[in-house]
Amino acid sequence: MVDSELVRLSETAVRHSDCCLSLSTTLLNAITLFLDVGDSTGADKLLLSIGSGSGLLEALLLEHWSTANSELYIEGVEVFQPGSSSASQLLNRYLPEPNYSTVKGTWDLSPRAVEATALMFVYPRSPDLVTRYINTFARNGDGILQTVLWLGPKCDWSDFARCFEGIQGWKLRLADSKQTGLVDYEMLAVIHRQV
Ligand SMILES: C[S@@+](CC[C@H](N)C(=O)[O-])C[C@H]1O[C@@H](n2cnc3c(N)ncnc32)[C@H](O)[C@@H]1O
Fold it and tell me: Across the chain, what does the average pLDDT equal?
């Protein structure tokens, strides 16, 4: 069950207690642009957000794309919370149930990634988890995955950069706060599969 109203964003980044990342309409547009790169299929495209937390950013993207009549759609993945009674877990407050699923533990990979054309990690905690997703679906994947986004504080990038380096057939791009509408100390990294 979704129990929270979405915040109204402006072009300027603001902090919200339900999301680690600063939020703005500029950010929603930047993420949308990064996901549209290289698209020519016209087919629906799933962005799977690993570690979606409250689901606020994801619900804002869902709303943004529904009003733009986009082919993009989003699902969030979180760790199952023991003691919760339904598929809508305590952490998720914004995403509707069809757009949300859980994994068994912090070590677990979501089976939904098989269907994803893009993965997103927002303030992830574990470089090993990111590496395992990339090894499974980018390095050794069968070609469905096209894009992986990492968004977090610049000070964390040195720990995560190695997850994204040296992947044959993929190109890494770093975008700063001016391009992405984030606050100064945050950044976005993206890898795209080269056709
Ligand atoms: C620092 S929080 C960031 C939450 C959210 N992205 C945000 O920016 O507010 C990291 C999240 O990753 C989740 N997480 C950890 N391991 C995970 C896994 N294997 N699959 C999905 N989520 C995971 C945690 O439960 C936690 O909510």
Answer: 91
**Closest by alpha carbon to 180, among 165, 190, 170, 194?**
190
Residue 137 alpha carbon to ligand 1 centre in Å: 19
Enter the tokens of residue 150. Answer: 């990492």
Query: Is the pLDDT reported for residue 89 higher than 70?
Result: no
DSSP assignment of 62-87? HHHHHHTT-SEEEEEEEE--TT--SS
d(Cα 102, Cα 76) in Å, to the nearest integer? Answer: 8
Is residue 50 lining ligand 1, measured as CB closer than 6 Å?
yes
* Level-2 CATH architecture, domain 14-193: 3-Layer(aba) Sandwich (3.40)
Distance 51 CA to ligand 1 centre (A): 3
Q: What pLDDT digit, counting tens, does each position of 41-67 carry?
A: 667 899 999 999 999 999 999 999 998
Q: Tell me the pLDDT tens digit for each residue of 95-148.
A: 999 999 999 999 999 999 999 999 999 999 999 999 999 999 998 767 799 999
Domain layout of the chain by residue ranges: 14-193
